[in-house]
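re: that chain from earlier
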Amino acid sequence: MAGPPVLFRLPGLPPAVQGAYAAAADLCEVRTLPWEDATSERPFAPAAEFARVIDLRDFAFDPAFRGVAMIDFFLARLGLDPLRVPAALRRNAWLAPRLTPPPTARGYVLVCPRTSMALRDMPEALHADLLRWLATHTARPVLTQGVSVAGTHPAPPAGDFAALCGLVAGAALVVSADTAMVHLADAYAVPTLALFTTHRPEWRVRDYPRCRALHFPAPGLPESLEFARSPADEAAAQAAWPGLEAIIQEIRLS
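^ sequence. v structure.
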């Protein structure tokens, strides 16, 4: 009888990432992949132990990953036809039944301006303008993971994955740059306005029913740019962000 699927992950991951895999412990066994095995240049030594190996190392550098919906890429690598998988199963709905966030405040607007790289960050000036507008145009508390302004509050630090999920689940609205918070908001069915520069929204949030999205493509940058090649790329992406009014209009519709 075949054993459970095994997922190999690199060591030393941030607590939030480790928490995500712990929440999925009933779906697969998680083992550590040494850093020297991080790229596909090195043969996967334990391959003989398994009937089938799906090698996703360096997937962000795979040309097939660019210009397609993320979930479609991974489903195809698993040997599935994405078009035959119902939209409800292409979401993050697996998480909420497995992780109930700790009690927290409810009903605030959560702004998430920062991402894992400066290429996709919301410009600081726009972030400050957005906070000022929210502070004067909504009766809800406004929390931000960036620098707060008068009338708004810094989001409480999330020391682990459960706390991060609780922060998102407690929001009445999430306004976020292209970061993991968008995907957590889908997991907990929180209305979201997602803001994209280097990627088209359909590549990231196509299947999220409670997510509205805006796309601000940067002239001169290749579509689906995953990593900045120079500071000029970051400057071009930052310059592509619009004025405040474009975002306000979508918030009013959210």
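The domain at 108-253 is CATH 3.40.50.2000 (Rossmann fold).
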